[in-house]
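2024-03-11 09:14:02 DEBUG pipeline.ingest accepted 1 chain
2024-03-11 09:14:02 DEBUG pipeline.ingest length=278
2024-03-11 09:14:03 DEBUG pipeline.predict start
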Amino acid sequence: MSFKSDVLTLEVNEHIATLWLDRESARNAMGSALWQGLSEVAEEIASDESIRVLVIAAKGPHFTVGLDLKEFGGSLTGGLGGEDPPSRASANASSYRAVRRMQESVTSIAKLPIPVIAAVHGYCIGGGVDLISACDIRLCSSDAIFSVREAKVAIVADLGTLQRLPRIVSAGHVAELAFTGKDITAQRAKEIGLVNSVHGASAPDALAAAYDLASEIASNSPLAVQGTKAVLAANDGRTVDEGLEFVARWNTMFLQSNDLREAMTAFIERRAPKFVGN
């Protein structure tokens, strides 16, 4: 792996990659290095055909406390206390570009062709919810605390939570979380469908469950799993008939694979299939 970052660490074990939020000293606060690194690591993961599943986890006592307000505070307030920008228009344009870059970094995770599992523990605040909303599956330990915190710091959440969360939980729950900025527990997150399940009391429990699930997914045909993710994504904005047309075309292209032949052979021979992804 050529990817290098001061705040992210990528590990690959056979067909499962782990992307660690690795800024423990700052409780994994999300600064510019994180936003830049997400796009870069997503590109590297997507280019590695051996990786079938990605797990996103965090080192230290918390998944992330969200946006690094120490780093971004000046830009969020228009540079109060610093030198005046050349014009308000140019300052606004710069802020717009910065927000779009951060949005694109989160979207790069959502667009990965492989399944992405978030394993959450401790605080998952603000930008952390943006990140896990871009994942396909979310697990957590019982110590996890979730918050769409932006309203409490006078910001409208703008990195994907308000766009992706309504596809995960109901509109009423999205509104409650976003309007109040309240903290919710792991159990409440499970009740509303934000997470699939709660595991144990701390990070290792959630991570172990994520790896078990990742291993189960990775044992299937990568062509079929990635095709399933593509079809699910393609359903957005389409009618049922349009979605059926899309999957018919997809299977026309990919159904007759070596993986399918291996599945049929393994069934006849009464053994577990060994898929290679072609």
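2024-03-11 09:14:41 DEBUG pipeline.report The two ends are 23 Å apart (CA to CA).
2024-03-11 09:14:41 DEBUG pipeline.predict end
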